Amino acid sequence: MNKVLVVSAAMGEGHNATGRALEDAVHRLWPEAAVTWLDALDVMGAGVGPLFRWIYVSNVQRTPWLYEFFYRSLWRHRWFATASKRFVGVWCGRRLARRVDDYGPDLVLSTYPLGSAGLDWLRRHHRLDAPVGAWISDFAPHPFWVYGDLDLNLVMHEQAVPPALKCVPRAKVAVSAPPVRAAFRPGDRDTARQHLGLPPEAFVALVSCGSLGFGDVEDAAKELLEAHPDVVPVVVCGRNDQLKRRLQPLADREPRLRLLGWTDEMAAHTIAADVVVTNAGGATGLEALACGRPVLMHRPIAAHGRANAQLMADAGLAIVCETDGELGDAVRELIAEPERWKAMAEAATHHCDSTGALEDGLLALGGLTSAAHRGSTAR
Predict the structure, then answer these.
(1) Name one GO cellular component term (predicted).
(2) Were 184 and a residue from 42, 61, 91, 290 both cysteine, which residue would form a disulfide, CB within 3.0 to 4.6 Å?
(3) Which CA distances in Å does 16 have to 11, 75, 211, 256, 284?
(4) pLDDT at 212 (0 to 100)
(5) Number of Cβ within a 10 Å radius of residue 98
(6) At residue 298, what are phi and psi to the nearest 5 degrees?
(7) If you ran DSSP here, which 8-state letter would residue 227 be given?
(8) Rounded CA gap, 297 and 289, in Å?
(9) What is the CATH number of the domain that holds 15?
């Protein structure tokens, strides 16, 4: 394997986090491989990235009903999903074409659905021979994630396979280990707490709602503080400085509350936690599972957030807390019934163990590369 292309997008940090995990795995398998990145939104045109990020944040925070309507329309109307994907595929694919031709990758890895749409268009128009794998980092696939002309669509759990195939019945779908960096793995909780200065006997709830830190984070912090005197909430505000400023008076009054901005020690904090509280179920949820930590989905965001929450709950990996008080109730139940916490933690660990290594999906795609090379040599 000489050249690997990662197609991602800076839509928050989740898609790029998946890409970094894949890049690490590529270098473990093929140390000499050169990895190049393309941001699908940047490729689609100047200003597209900022515009799409504004639309996404605005929909989630101000018009969740509109986001939910679009999401449900993709599922209810196959023609709408097909037309939307084809439109984006032409837009992104035409602009990707020259960049892909110039680089000449042996393997292409996509972590962003609009990038996958462009790669699917290239494949259908015979402009991309290299194997392509799309890592669907949302726990619940939706129609914009899955493409029939890609070599592999990799989902995060066995329960995600049926909805992926419902999106595109002819798609090639496989289950991947969580695409997270190697630091996210089961570890010693006491050692992590000592390193981070967290109390060893507390019930630590790590609150992380992505790099943008949006959603009902303040309410989550208050509910956790009121749930039980042993609860220590650790709130990661990410790049949302306003959120940190809003929470600071509460932290000043209640020393149990720990506030973090952007941190490079998310793996240590996840290992140190008893539970991870989030609202979207993307990269943060996958990192929690990789560390064997139960997930509490607090007021999941519209559309894909709610779908992720429900599928994770169906798999026994999360508790969904939709209404006022449910987060506190869930924490009290886990403190009072440690066997339930243990069962959820074991389910997460078992799932990660049963899916094999992240490299397995790359090896499957690498085998396609070898087969294509043998075929071209024979011709």
Answers:
(1) membrane
(2) 290
(3) 8, 26, 11, 32, 12
(4) 72
(5) 11
(6) -95, 115
(7) H
(8) 13
(9) 3.40.50
Q: Which amino acid is at 270?
A: T
Task: Answer yes or no: do 134 and 229 share one domain.
Answer: no
Residues 214 and 141 in one domain: no
pLDDT in tens, 11-32: 878 899 999 999 999 999 999 9
C-alpha 261/C-alpha 292 separation (Å) is: 24
Q: Rounded to the nearest 10 degrees, what angle do helices 304-314 and 64-76 cross at?
A: 70
Question: In the 3-class helix/strand/coil scheme, how is 279-309 assigned residue by residue?
Answer: CCCCHHHHHHHHCCCCEEEECCCCCHHHHHH
What's phi and psi for 13, nearest 5 deg?
A: -115, -10
- % of the chain at pLDDT higher than 90: 83
Q: Which of 373, 304, 337, 328 is nearest to 107 (CA)?
A: 373
Rounded distance between C-alpha atoms, residue 116 and residue 110, angstroms: 6
Q: From its phi and psi, is residue 292 left (phi > 0), alpha (psi between -120 and 50) or beta?
A: left
- Looking at residue 330, its pLDDT comes to 97
User: For the segment 283-317, what is each residue's pLDDT rounded down to a tens digit?
Assistant: 899 999 999 999 999 999 999 999 999 999 999 99
Give the whole-angstrom CA distance, residue 335 versus residue 201. Answer: 12
Q: What ranges make up the beta strands (E) of the chain? A: 3-8, 34-39, 107-110, 132-135, 152-155, 173-175, 203-208, 231-236, 258-260, 275-278, 295-298, 318-321
112 and 240 in a single domain? The answer is no
CA 267/CA 90 separation, integer angstroms: 38
Q: What pLDDT sits at residue 374?
A: 34
Query: Strand order of the sheet with strand 107-110?
Result: 34-39, 3-8, 107-110, 132-135, 152-155, 173-175
Q: pLDDT band for position 378 (50/70/90)?
A: very low
Q: At 269, which CATH number?
A: 3.40.50.2000
Q: What is the mean pLDDT of residues 140-164?
A: 96
Look up residue 164 and give its amino acid: A
Q: Which of 233-237, 326-330, 352-356 has the lowest mean pLDDT?
A: 352-356
pLDDT at 377 over 80: no
Half-sphere exposure of 61 (CA within 13 A, CB side): 12
Q: The whole model's pTM is what?
A: 0.91
* Boundaries of domain holding 243: 189-354
Which residue, 209, 221, 352, 349, is CA-closest to 284? 209
